[in-house]
Amino acid sequence: MAPWRSEEYLVGGVRMAGIVRRLATVLGAVALALLVMCFFGKQDHFSETADQGPGKVPQGRPAMADTGVEVSRPSILFIMTDDMDVRSMEYFPELQREIGAGSGLGAGATFQNSYVTQSLCCPSRTSMLTGMYSHNHQVRGNGATFGGLEDLRKHGHERVNIATRLDDGGYRTVFIGKYLNDYAGGYVPKGWDRWYGYRGGYNGKNMSFQENDRVVRYNPDRRFDTYVMRDMAIKEIQDSGDKPFFMWLSFHSPHSPSLYPEKYANYFPDTNIQRVPSMGEKDLSDKPKWVRKNAGYTPDDEKQRRRLRSMLAVSESVTEIMTALAQTGRLANTYVVFTSDNGLRLGEHDIPRGKKTAYEEDVSVPLYMRGPGVPTGVVYPNIALNTDLAPTFADWANIEQPPGVDGRSLAPIFDDPGVPWRTAFLIEHWRDRRADSPYIPTFKAVHTNDAVYIRYATGEHELYKLDQDPYELSGKVQDPALENDLEKRLAELRNCAEQACREAEDGR
To answer: How confident is the model at residue 205 (pLDDT cuts 50, 70, 90)?
Structure first.
């Protein structure tokens, strides 16, 4: 575990609090509920339902009945941010307590070793939809020259994915927010009963959604996109009736330009990016040529402040959505998952802010879960991947998972933290022939519990012992036995598919 990942109450060899923690959880929940009632009773001028006030959820349908097969099936709410790095989550303890372990006081669980298998928007989102590694789903970039929405459609992943399976299984499926790059509206992808897809790029100048069969435009000077999506989610929860729902709520924040409501303009006035040892790294002789060529970047504190302010609106909206679930009687029977499509470098290794690499900051993402049978206040050390989300959702819903899944359900961990689990996974990147900034060569990497080995198409490689070098300062480790072992594991993972991937991850 890297030291910049927050340590909480662990399970499976790590400590948990007992009665004291449970009592604190109850008291904390009561206090939080009172705070929410007081705070969110205030109106915000961005809300389409400002006359009701955010968090003032009108009484909709009655709570779910205790009988009937349909209503007994759990709903699933999947909340995703864009470019959210793990380290910055320390500024949002309320969100962590709402969904994750929250330092032992939370309503759910946290996976402290959660990763994406390709640190880029469209490939990662496709892995979440399909449960596949990028070399199998073939969406290897964000578009323009390859990847993106065009490749998603070309390879049939809009026709069959976790949403279509849930829809076929009787779920009311809802999508809200950012889909894949280049989505401009004009159609609703198969499998979605209710669709609110953001159209075009995110720049704060134009805001429109493909809302089912029509285009709806909003004035960004009067409405804030995070709150628009929040209101859509609350209304869909209220209108869902007795049918279980699957909702994918995809926020833009904290992705640049990191927009935020005016009421948060004065927050984080003096907050600076934490200067970890890998920032201002003076000796880059261990790094490949592309790193040395792009070195010299200074972390941008003001951009980070904007990112944090934009996330305050997300944290606020999550609390209001959870309130809606409670007021409609659905909270106890709903799984809630929070994550990001990828992490983000903020200046580590002296290279420009961004993603796409195999470095920890790029591939690590927050992952919080709560719901029926999920232990509260617990942190799990198991490696969790974006490829695991689709099979986990299928497991919870008791439906057939999509074809070709490489990942595995995380649900068994909640029953038995000691269940045999993966010890390695694959990280991939393909150089986009479009002007990459910085230029990053094509690579494949294998990441284990305590090491990462990166092999570039240029012939260069990096090897880090993460248990001894968590900030990845020395990439030329002299350990022939370890390097040989990781070369073999990388060869097994490089082109794996389905069960072969799971066996290679396990080291079988």
So the answer is: confident
Number of domains in the chain: 1
Q: Is the confidence at residue 465, as pLDDT, over 70?
A: yes
- 111 inside domain: yes
Query: How many other β-carbons are positioned within 10 Å of the β-carbon of residue 332?
Result: 12
Closest to 194 in 3D by CA, of 238, 252, 251, 139: 238
Helices and strands in the chain: count of H runs, count of E runs: 15, 16
- pLDDT of residue 448 exceeding 80: yes
Q: Which of 290, 344, 363, 291 is nearest to 118 (CA)?
A: 363
> Given its phi and psi angles, is residue 86 left (phi above 0), alpha (psi -120 to 50 degrees) or beta?
alpha
Q: How far is the CA of 111 from the CAs of 44, 230, 341, 372, in angstroms?
A: 34, 25, 15, 17
In a domain, 463, yes or no: no
Tokens of 80: 């995703």
Residue with tokens 């299928």: 394
Does 3 score more than 80 pLDDT?
no
Taking CA 331 as the corner, what is the angle to CA 170 and CA 396, rounded to the nearest 5 degrees? 45
What single DSSP character describes residue 145?
T
Q: State pLDDT tens for residues 83-130.
A: 999 999 999 999 999 999 999 999 999 999 999 999 999 999 999 999
Q: Give me the pLDDT at residue 489, please.
A: 98
Is the peptide bond preceding residue 438 cis, with omega within 30 degrees of 0?
yes
- Give me the residues paired with residue 403 across strands: none
Q: Summarize the confidence of residues 404-414 as an average pLDDT.
A: 98
| C-alpha closest to that of 234 among 70, 389, 79, 39 | 79
Residue written as tokens 């092999």?
455
Is 6 domain-assigned? Answer: no
- CATH code for the domain of 113: 3.40.720.10
Would you say residue 446 lies in a domain? Answer: no
The DSSP 8-state label assigned to residue 59 in this structure reads P
Between CA 142 and CA 188 the distance in angstroms is 20
